[in-house]
Amino acid sequence: MLVLENIDAGYGGFQALFGISMRVEPGEVVGVIGANGAGKTTLLRVISGMLSATAGSMTMEGTDLRRIEAHQILATGIAHVPESRRLFPRLTVEENLRMGAYLPAARAHFAERLEYVYGLFPRLKERRSQLAGTMSGGEQQMCAIARALMSRPRLVLLDEPSMGLAPVIVAQVFDLVRRIRSEGYTVLIVEQNVRQVLKVADRAYLLEVGRIQMSGTSEELAASDDVRRAYMGL
Amino acid sequence: MDCHLDVFFLEALINGLLLAGLLALLALGLNLVFGVIDVVWICYAELVMVGMYGIFYAHKAGVPFVLAAVIGIALCAAAGVLLHMLVIRPVLDQAPINQLLVTGGVLIFLQAAATMAFGIEFKNLGIRLGSVGIADMSFSWSRILAFGIALAAMLALWIFLTRTYTGTAIRAIAQDRQIMPLMGADARRIYVVTSAIGAGLAGLAASLMVLQYDIYPQIGLQFGPLIFMICVLGGLGNMIGGFIAAFIISQFIAVGSSCFHTEWGYAVAFLFFMVAVLIRPQGLFGAKS
Amino acid sequence: MKLTSPASIAAFGGLLLVPALIRIVFPDSEKYYLHLLIQILLWSFIYTGWSLMGRFGLTSLGHGAFTGIGAYGCVLFWNFAGLSPWLGIPVSIAVAVAVSLLIGYPCFRLRIAGHYFALLTLALTEFVRLCIVGLRDYTGGSLGTQPKRAADGISFYALQFEPDRWLSYYIALALWVFGLWVWLRVDRSMDRYALDAASQDEDAAASVGVNVTREKLKITALSAGLCALGGAIYGQYQMYIGPDTIAGLGVSLNMVFAVIAGGLWVPLGPTVGAIFTQVLTEGLRVAIQGSATLKATLGSAALALDQLIYGLLLILFIIYMPKGILGTLMERRARKKAGKPAAPGSAEPAPG
Prior knowledge:
The complex is a heterotrimer of chains A (about 230), B (about 290) and C (about 350).
Chain A: E1 2-11, E2 14-24, E3 29-33, H1 40-48, E4 53-60, E5 63-64, E6 78-81, H2 93-100, H3 104-107, H4 110-120, H5 122-126, H6 137-149, E7 155-159, H7 167-182, E8 186-191, H8 194-200, E9 203-208, E10 211-217, H9 218-223, H10 225-231
Parallel strand pairs in A: 3-8, 3-9, 6-7, 7-8
Antiparallel strand pairs in A: 1-2, 1-4, 4-5, 9-10
Chain B: H1 7-37, H2 44-60, H3 65-88, H4 96-118, E1 131-134, E2 137-140, H5 141-163, H6 165-175, H7 187-209, H8 220-234, H9 239-259, H10 262-279
Antiparallel strand pairs in B: 1-2
Helix pairs in contact in B: 1-5, 1-7, 1-8, 1-9, 2-3, 2-4, 2-7, 2-8, 3-7, 5-6, 5-7, 6-7, 8-9, 8-10, 9-10
Chain C: H1 6-25, H2 30-54, H3 64-81, H4 85-109, H5 114-134, H6 136-139, H7 165-188, H8 190-200, H9 202-207, H10 212-238, H11 248-262, H12 269-290, H13 292-298, H14 305-320, H15 324-338
């Protein structure tokens, strides 16, 4: 589905990603783990078009992602749930969801998508007229994911969903991830919380200083000594 | 000073209210652009001036007034789009003050162009709508019409901003521009639409003003600074705040003009603005940033 | 640029000789050319005063208020109280400084900056202009007024010197040099570094002990005072002041435009800006007068041609040369010397 080959990217004179090659197949949950500054968020920004790659190729079901503009990427089926949620704070929950359905194709099915999303996340329905900025972190994360689902995406990019959230809420967030996985969405999730993400992902890539150091199934990575020592505190 | 609390004073107050409608409409367009794109179009009043000349010449060429007004609105909307694409876009990365200054250049340019193209004589559309008398007071229909249409326009804009996708996107982009592409929205296009609407509102204001005022190239200097004051006073991007601020300012002007010379009304309005902003910089109704 | 370097001294000497040179080269139009130079010098002084604030990010659209207070204060004290400008000017300067501090203090305490600050100063200049027009019994309203001529127009007590162009020139020259001296003193002072730091990051500056508000107030007072002085001397030279010639939004915008055109961060930038704008206006005027065809096609519209070009140039300058003519030239020269291309625009900081 999503194929990256030798992607380089950076900011100004500073290169953040070196020759990244990875793939995501339909129905999978793929994790990208690594420390702060490893380039995980950069990777997602490159995929969703917020940052331009400087070399390499990226395709989504055959469509060359590097050739199209950032705002056209959603139409290829890739929905990005940004780091720190990034809801529109002074829009209501429902208005945020409406923005998720901004694409002409999505607008046509807005009412039905809204029902579906409220069905998945009843708490959001309760708060539909609440300003998004006034919700708790966990609720915001729910809303951000729901917003991404409004456009009926094929691939959902989740950028550090547990960041800044209390441990109790973190568990709830990963339940959300399992939930959308069971709804059939393909997910690429970038996370610092290695333990949790390896529990929910099928496969994972280990990113260190902008390069893929290791890749394999979650079990393999969880069993690897390097990973356990460096990231799981064992 | 001849200032008594009599019927003339009341008339001045009500005229002030009617004027507030027009000022609020003018502030609306500026507020929209200000609040969404975060640029100050110092030349906003000059866009209105361009609209007024457009309507004048269209009408002179035999076009019925309402159609001329539509032409004026379209002309202004187009001017706004050009302004954004040619002048604002190249400086969006520069310091905000540069964005303000570059529209200052447009202000000077438009005034000069109008002087060269149309001359400095005052022009008037020549349409008289008459007045209505209530008690001993008399109010011109054009003022009342301007007030009504201004309110209607504000309502229409509110509906647009809250009920349509584009309108919601315009509100959204003001809150977080960076993630708009993630919604599948082209930020550049939304800015252009915002500019068109903001300038179109200037055109609407122009169509109301040609019924009341003479047209001359420097007319922008008369109400331009006033409009900025109202926007800032009412709190950026706050429509209701803008109307209330317009009301306050126009009352100062109306009372000042009826009691003293016109200048003092304006001078006090400006003084009030300075004091208010120095006490509460985000405006009377703005949110603390 | 050191004021005492051999090049500067030579240049200064040259400037001292200019009136004599003009008398030799243009004997018939001596008055005209000296007039042009005096205008340039006086406006350079005023623009330099403005740039003291502008270079630290305090872009005021309201300095027309200070030149207006200086000019009108001086003239009104003379006309109605018989007060010699030698006293009238200091008093007017004090008023201008007081106004600047009155507005500046709450402004800086509340961290009003950028275009909010600009709009506030715009309101100030309009307020002053409106008051000037409103006090029409004293100020002549929108028609302006003149200082009462003393004797034949030249008087020490009345500080009038207009008929003697040579004297006027040297006074203007002295003022201009004074302005440059102030600029350079500020540039070398600790306050300059404090203000530079504050203009980049107020919190950081405050945390290292910079009293940001006090620094800003100091530079504001200085800037307002210089502009008031410039306005007053300008009035004394022109022997006429009007609310739109020495106060108001137009004057304020001209200041900003000229300094942007010349270069905001270099000492001679405002001067270059003044030269540029005065020469442009004068050049256009002469070209239009001299050309029958231009006169015929433009007619009275010719009056606005220079404004049209100004406006266009202001737009183009900000888009393409935000550092001004001098600033951009100097930057290019510095870059060539360093032998490297300039770094492209700010890089986004890399997130985690």
